[in-house]
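User: quick one, fold this
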Amino acid sequence: MSKVSKRSRLVFAADVGGTHVRAAVVDQCGQVLHRTKQNTPHTSDPEEIVELLVNAVKGATTDQSEQISGVSVVVPGTVDAEHGTIVKAPNVSCLDGFNLTSALTAELGWPSVIENDANAAAVGEMWLGAGRGKRTIVCITLGTGVGGGIILNEKLWRGVDGAAAEIGHMCVDPFGGVPCGCGSNGCLEVYASATALVRMAQEAKPRYSKSILQRKGGLTAKTIFDAGMQGDELALEVFQRMGKYLGIGVANLINILNPEMIVIGGGVIAGWELFEKSLRQQVDERAFPLLAGRVRIVRGECGDDAGLLGAARLSFDK
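Assistant:
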């Protein structure tokens, strides 16, 4: 990716999710100077999101406003990055069709950019994370859903409609697969997300009467992970099944894109050691040997900051 301009000093980056809005002031070396985290407003008025972001900027930049070069916001959905419009954001539906960059620039007087959150995470990992020094990587984010970002020859690939890299909606079980919220069946998201872990554990509970998860009230991805680390057979089966489907998806990506690296991030990678073996078995069985032998499949290094760092980098580059 192109070098960050020395004239750019600080960027205010925000990650607008369905539950929280996380924001940070980031310098051109990727150092986070200030952080905020607030609940995402449950509203039908996009101006409430704008107001929250503007107030967060003002609260974070009291002594630094003269150094801010821009505002960069990432959202979980399809965006028209060129025109600054959010096309569709299912978890923040009030922003559908809204030109967020124009609204923020009008309020703050700084240039603004928007991007899909998983795309931004890929940029963050390539800038300061596992993808440093690479030219072509695929980033898969495993959280409540499954997202993706693709960087080809150091350029973020958005697709003609800005909706490229919807890796979570790659079909990995076409016949009789679990229905997905997108309207299809058997998508990777219904097997490799935190939500999927909980569903698969509930489905398998009747077969494991002695599982410690039988004593848990409301299952979460965290309780399943904790049980797996204790050797619980139900939890281990769930993570192995998840790894199998994730491996099928990864093998497809390897065969299609021939990347240098596949970076897997998001909260679910806490269970990496519980699903990595199953993932790699599928890759070995399904990917072209030459391509599988070249690619590195690694954990992300930027954690929850991947999207914020990527957002900042995109602003610096622009």
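User: anything notable?
Assistant: The longest strand covers residues 20-27.
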